[in-house]
Amino acid sequence: MYDELTEVDIQKMQEELNHRIQVLRPQLIEEVQTARAFGDLSENFEYRCAKQAKNRNESRIRYLEGMIRTAKVIDTRSGANSVGLFDWVTVYNELAKKEMVLRVVTTLRQDALKGLISKESPAGKALLGHSVGDRVQVEAGPTTKYFLEIRAIKKGKDDASLDISSY
Q: pTM here?
């Protein structure tokens, strides 16, 4: 299995990975050693916290290495009049009876609260490749379906302004 990511996604992950290995790892190891010197480890809160922070960092390093190793680089170009990756799409949600602006992004950068929807989400899948005026059906579950009408498309690009998610 692989993750479909852009060159910028991989670059951002590599930057985070380098920072975690070269900067955070030595700091956290030092914090564990300092806390260990405080005495009895069974009642040493500082030691437990330092170990947890070190373990979280190591876990994130393994996650990033795995993502980079298994990534498939995808092209972000799309047709001039159709919804593509990193485009802003103004849609009318017929179920909610309101207009909203969504941006289709890679899974690594999704944040639904900010209107950033994954290309692999039900709405993202439904919107990709369609044009202004199209009415697309979103299947959010086996019994939940609704329609979105595409009202406008503003072309975007993968400009590294969007952060990658922490997990």
A: 0.78
Q: Which residues are within 8 A (CB) of 20 and not within 5 positions of it... i.e. 6 or more apart?
A: 57, 60, 61, 64
Tens-place pLDDT, residues 21-76: 999 999 999 999 888 887 777 777 888 899 999 999 999 999 999 999 999 998 88
Contact 150, 91 (CB under 8 A): yes
The single residue listed with the structure tokens 């992950």 is 13
Bridge partners (DSSP) listed for residue 137: 147
Q: What is the pLDDT of residues 119-160, one digit of tens each?
A: 999 999 999 999 999 999 999 888 889 999 999 999 988 877
Query: How do beta strands 135-139 and 71-73 pair?
Result: unpaired
